[in-house]
Amino acid sequence: MSPKNDEYDQSSLPSLLPIYYKYLFPFAPYYQWLSYQENAGDISKREFSFTLSNDIYIRYKSFCNQEELEKELQNINPYKIDIGAIYNLPPKDHKRHAAGKFKPQSKELVFDIDMTDYDEVRNCCQGADICTRCWTLMKIAIKILDETLRDDFGFKNIMWIYSGRRGVHCWVCDTSARQLTQHARVAIVEYLTVLKAGRQEKKVKLRYPIHPYVKRCIRIVKSYWEKYGLLDQDLLLNDKTIKVIMKLLPDTKFRETVTTIMKDLNLKTSTERWIEIVKAFKEYCNKDTNSSRHQYLINEIILELCLPRLDANVSKSVNHLLKSPFSVHPKTGRVCVPIDPENVDEFDPFTVPTISDLCHEVEHLKKEDDDETGNKKAVYMSTSLGKYMNTFDEFLAKLKIDEKKLAIRTANQKASPYEF
Predict the structure, then answer these.
(1) What pLDDT, on the 0 to 100 scale, is given for residue 366?
(2) How many helices (H) and strands (E) does the chain have?
(3) Pairing of strands 158-162, 104-106
(4) Is 334 exposed, middle or buried (0-12, 13-18, 19+ CB in 10 A)?
(5) Contact 319, 220 (CB under 8 A)
(6) Is 398 in contact with 157 (CB distance < 8 Å)?
(7) Under DSSP, is residue 129 helix (H, G, I), strand (E, B) or coil?
(8) What SS3 class is residue 108?
(9) Taking the CB of the first residue and of the last residue of the chain, which one, N or C, has fewer CB atoms within 10 A?
């Protein structure tokens, strides 16, 4: 079960949100991110959506500048902010145009990974509940996808965001990523999907030669397997996950061998059972002339239990909306903060500040400094949100450099060779 947050009371959210949007929401860096330096005009065509109290949902909002965005958020104090695509026309004016004239043009390549999609293979929690033991699955997903997006696709500006409750979101912000067609997005999702969707009992089937991406998945998953799978989750001592594993075994004979191992009362831990299963599988391969068809079984098992589960529809569609960074999750009160992928093992979702924490910190700061008209950035940087803002600022600095380099290259390519 999730560790309890004793300080946040969901009923207090309406009174906390005005403080959050006045003092804590990082409007300037947020606007800088979405305006992408040289393309500030595009933000007026960017769709925002807001969820208000009583689940009132407002789509197709757009803003010409930071001041308009800031004024609107402080006026309506949304429970949730979603970000959509950049359209060919301002979304707020979409009803003024004939059907078919309003079309999405670009958007970041995004990924949504939710812990509920792992329910079949985690024993500690179910549904919306998470704990530090199953959070390892998010660490694995971030490491696999971040390395792959950088090394295999050449993307550089990748931002990871905690969803505020039970998952993570990825925003790939390179210009080349934002301009991807829907077909290209589908192709990338398919490339990343080793765990096949559907009702088949075995969702990971490896064949020779093993693809480099799959080798990466195996390497990263194995680095967590002993602690996560055998110690934290005890996957071989729980009937639910034992049933999942048994379905993956190649034939009746080997399945009977593993059943015998599971019933051995002398094997009291998942680690002991796993050692015996691996040993039995080696013996099976030595005896069975057809065993080469199943030579990757051990890797298939650990991948099936640990691989990232992607919400493909979120990534494939250009006009799909995704929860905004720095939105507040109304159930937990936690802010959707950036995660440093280079230090993903140190990220703890249960230490992410809640809106209650932050508002209390603001009140304390205001007592220390009666000047309430001070620099808002200084306010949020002086709270527990500050260290997450450092991660965001580092991301923005790198993005700014890459955007400028791209602008220079583009200008040089367009320039006439006779211009000096």
Answers:
(1) 80
(2) 15, 9
(3) unpaired
(4) buried
(5) no
(6) yes
(7) coil
(8) coil
(9) C
Residues known to be catalytic: 47, 112, 114
Report CA Rg, the chain.
25
176 Cβ contact list (under 8 Å, min separation 6): 154, 155
Q: Which CA distances in Å does 77 have to 13, 24, 49, 372?
A: 10, 12, 12, 20
Q: What pLDDT is stored for residue 6 in this prediction?
A: 53
Q: If 0-12 CB within 10 Å is exposed, 13-18 middle and 19+ buried, where does residue 141 land?
A: buried
- The CA distance from 193 to 89, in Å, is 34
Identify the CA nearest to 271 among candidates 302, 234, 307. Answer: 234
pLDDT mean by block of 10 residues, the chain; 420 residues: 65 97 96 80 91 96 96 98 96 89 95 96 95 98 98 98 98 96 97 82 90 98 98 96 93 93 96 97 83 87 97 95 98 98 98 97 81 60 96 97 86 64
Tokens of 96: 């003024």
Q: What distance, in Å, lies between the first and last C-alpha atoms of the chain?
A: 67
Neighbours of 144 (CB within 10 A): 21
- Indicate the helix (H) or strand (E) that contains 378: helix 376-381
Give how far the C-alpha of residue 286 lies from the chain's centroid of Cα atoms, to the nearest Å: 42
| DSSP state string for 131-179 | -TTTTHHHHHHHHHHHHHHHHTT----EEEEE-SSSEEEEEE--HHHHT
